[in-house]
Fold this sequence. Notes:
Blueprint: E1 2-7, H1 14-25, E2 31-34, E3 37-38, H2 46-54, E4 59-60, E5 65-66, H3 73-79, H4 86-97, E6 102-110, E7 114-116, H5 118-121, E8 175-176, H6 177-187, E9 190-197, H7 202-215, E10 219-226, H8 231-241, E11 246-249, H9 257-263, H10 274-278, E12 297-300, E13 306-309
Amino acid sequence: MTLAIVGTGTDVGKTVVAATLLARYGAEIPLAYWKPVATGSRDGRDTATVEALAGDRAAILPESCLFVEPLSPHLAARLEGRRIEPAALLADFDRHRAMGRTLVIETAGGLLVPLVDGEGDRGGEDQGEGETHGHDRGGWPFRLPPPGSAVPAVTGTAGTAPAGAPSGGTAAACYLQADLLVDMARRAPLACLVVARSGLGTINHTLLTLEALRMRGLALAGVVLDGPPNRENRLAIQRFGGVDAIFELPYLAPLDREEVAAATRHFDPQGHLAPLLRLRRHPTGSGSRAGDGSEGRIETGRGGRSRRTLPRPTT
């Protein structure tokens, strides 16, 4: 199983949640932490923070792409004259899964952060002729699911992907962080743990993130509200978002190993996440397709909402 920690935006507490999760379960479940793409290394690395806070409880893997400036990945890469290659990230994903540990992946910023900006990477030149899949080149590059599809075929705005390539489209196509998660979910069971601030504005940000996850058929493990407890926000997200599992993590001060260890006594007290982290399945390989049963099935949740349920843990 892979657990992806997804934020409603930047600086919402994903790194602290990741460290707390590792400290909570790392002693009983073999875990590995990985942040595939990270920016802002001049101000410190989230990987180093997690290692300092919980490195004795899990394997800490290096970033596949690390950039200096604290910017969106596509822009940070462009400023360094580099390009994020989705195929390389997916190859690292397959290699890390082969370790025999459950992967805990921390994403960079929010769900729709661009990793590859086709026009920007090419200096704004015309992307050429090609199928636009109903999108004007000047319009939104976001992926929408085709009718009747559980997990959408992620295609680029400048044409379809060649056989064997990641589903982000051609070399010039845009590729969002959500596209990377969809491609990972096609290869192995994956669920998303959404991290949001607990204060004002979080209802809207969290519901938008949940909607974007569900439109792509990505499984939801739960929501973590980071900050002072806010009962009304928690109940609103639970009701309007159709979320069964909501965890709360107060601000940790000082942020050190001892404080994180103390926080584990109150984080996920019912052990809701444990079965997901323990889930073991034979690797499906890069050729597996969404909807073949390896990621679970779509059911109707409260209020008639569609949601994806995970496979039962194997024993």
